[in-house]
Amino acid sequence: MNVLVTGGAGYIGSVCVEQLCHAGHQVTVLDNLTEGHRAAVDPRARFVHACLSDRAGVARAVKEAGAAAILHFAANALVGESMTNPAKYFRNNVAWGQNLLDAAVEAKVGKFVFSSTCATYGPPERVPMTEDLPQRPINPYGESKLMFEKMLTWYQRVYGLEFVAFRYFNAAGASEKFGEHHRVETHLIPNVLKVALGLAPECAIYGADYETPDGTCIRDYIHIADLADAHIRALEPGRTGFYNLGNGEGYSVREVIQACRMISGRPIKTVEKPRRPGDPPRLVADAEKAAHELGWRPRFPKLEDIVATAWDWHRRHPNGYSD
Ligand code: UDP
Hints:
Blueprint: E1 2-6, H1 11-22, E2 26-31, E3 46-49, H2 55-65, E4 69-72, H3 79-84, H4 86-106, E5 111-117, H5 140-159, E6 163-168, E7 170-172, H6 188-196, E8 203-206, E9 218-219, E10 221-223, H7 224-234, E11 241-245, E12 251-252, H8 253-264, E13 270-273, H9 288-294, H10 303-316
Parallel strand pairs: 1-2, 1-4, 2-3, 4-5, 5-6, 6-11, 7-10, 8-13
Antiparallel strand pairs: 9-12
The structure holds uridine-5'-diphosphate.
Uridine-5'-diphosphate binds next to helix 6 and strand 8.
């Protein structure tokens, strides 16, 4: 199948492109490389250096790719940054994203697969979280993704653009070739592993006074290879709707740091800092819907195994794609 992948030079997109190419699909990557890296694009894929803000360029790329499906990863995805620069999130994730949606309708693309997030829920009424929980985001990042989800619903209903939207929990881990390299790193696991590698003196724990057993935030970490696998399943005809993607197990910040100590065998110094604005205390997925309807089961259900793949990649690429 011809597939266009936006954000295919980014962290999750790169591994999805790798799996799509491996499965024999013809992949075109569209990326503006502000967050992504050219070296993260699987050499089997065609690369188009373009920005979603370029409406005509996006429409042309969709047509030239002959895309039967679009996988839309390109976005800004930092909770903290969104609290200080919401304009960036609504512009890049919503307004520019709409250029892609319109191009998809115009080119009669059969399937649109969207990277959404558990941040669309806000602090949940209960965990594990099912897809039918109310969505009340507490940061502009989650709000921007929720707005796009709503647009998808209407584009499907009115224009017939079939979609699958995946609400990722915390993406983590690496494939053998592709891993996590953000130019400004704010995510927990890569920051902790930087300390293990001796590239940073200590890692911050943002908030130790949450109402959780050890006072730190709880998240559900899911391997990017498992996320990619769900996307490939979403391409099957007739599949549509919203799906949580997570392991169904929550780990606190302290537990993640401990897992990193164990896997790396290195001491990791921590320092407690104030809470980071916009962080819900506890997010854990119920991903039974994806299991039942897509036959999706994570191959990396254990945190230690996820961290081990990340550690392996970071050890081999201490400077990420800048090597
Ligand atoms: N976190 C932390 N120190 C860091 C980075 C993150 O304590 O250096 C915490 C953060 O406050 C959140 C959790 O780790 O509670 C996961 O954060 P991350 O940025 O990895 O993902 P998010 O859940 O924000 O998407």
